[in-house]
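Board notes (copied after class):
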Amino acid sequence: MQDMQSCIDSCLRCHAVCLQELTQRCLTMGGKHVEQRHVVLMLDCAEICQTAANFMLRGSAQHKLTCRVCAEVCEACAQTCEQVGGMDECARICRDCAESCRRMAA
């Protein structure tokens, strides 16, 4: 149960950080930070993190499926954050969430 709570916390943190970074940093910086692929991945990451957390919070037997997808999307989001630059903290939080979700999906 401790591992699941840790994963829930990681997912909720990643959800919040992706939305905040997108709306408060990327949209104001422009350029590569607002390219479609990056923006879509940031939104996808926020959404799947919230979904994975919700599945775990309600004790869904399907939480391993959402966690597996969440890990993949978080990893892709971390990569795009590194590519656009200046988003190291967001990339780190995405990678932490990806690792936590991989453990839950196992």
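Comment from the instructor: The helical segments are 2-29, 36-57, 63-84, 88-105. The radius of gyration is 13 Å.
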